[in-house]
Amino acid sequence: MSAAAADGDDTGRRAIDGREALATARLQLLTAARHRLALHLPLLGRDDYGNDAELAELKRVATSGRRAGIRILLHDPATALRDGHRLITLFQRLTSAIQIRTPVEDVDRQCASAWLLTDTGGYLFLPDAGQPQGRMALVDRAAQVPLQQQFDEIWERSARANELQALDL
Fold first, then answer.
1. CA-CA distance, 139 to 129, in Å (whole number)?
2. Residue from 31, 36, 44 nearest 86 by CA
3. Do residues 112 and 75 make contact, with C-beta atoms less than 8 angstroms apart?
4. Considering the entire predicted model, what is its pTM?
5. What is the helix (H) or strand (E) element at residue 159, kind and residue range?
6. Distance in angstroms (rounded) separating the CA atoms of residues 99 and 73
7. Which of 75, 143, 157, 161 fits a disulfide with 100 by CB distance 3.0 to 4.6 angstroms?
């Protein structure tokens, strides 16, 4: 049994340490989500939210019905677009269900933490988006609430990432 699994509990709460544990946590949370997700991504690495299984779950959530919605705060959309990240391609195909905004205020752009929030009370939190260490829970609304509040505040102050809109010429 891995150390990450050993310190977990029935809420799925556990520490994340390493890229493999991080990828597993992301997929578990995406699979558990029903209709809504919120992602705060100061960095979007090539392997983050870009493999077939993660993209399939993102698409499932985005197409899950009228209440479906994925909100993404992406600090550097131009780089993700230039690198051809698969998440951007999915966004361009599902613009009615996926919204991407970019923080514009300095205080928001300096936030180096990354997180994923689900509508089922789950979360993944990385204090430093560049490091694969943090914590997660499949269901822990009490711990999720401050992250959701911070996300909503940043979201309201952010601008649409218009450079990601596909050009239908």
1. 22
2. 44
3. no
4. 0.90
5. strand 159-160
6. 9
7. 161
**Domains recognised in the chain with CATH numbers:** 3-161 (3.30.870.10)
Nearest-angstrom CA–CA distance, 2 and 54:
22
Terminal CA-CA length for the chain: 53
pLDDT tens track, the chain, 169 positions: 333 443 445 688 999 999 999 999 999 999 999 999 999 999 998 889 999 999 999 999 999 999 999 999 999 999 998 999 999 999 999 989 999 999 999 999 999 999 999 999 999 999 999 999 999 999 999 999 999 999 999 999 999 998 887 554 3
CA dist., res. 168 & res. 146, Å (int): 39
Contacts of 95 (CB under 8 A, 6+ apart): 165, 166
The torsion defined by the Cα of 34, 109, 132 and 32, in degrees rounded to 10, comes to: 0
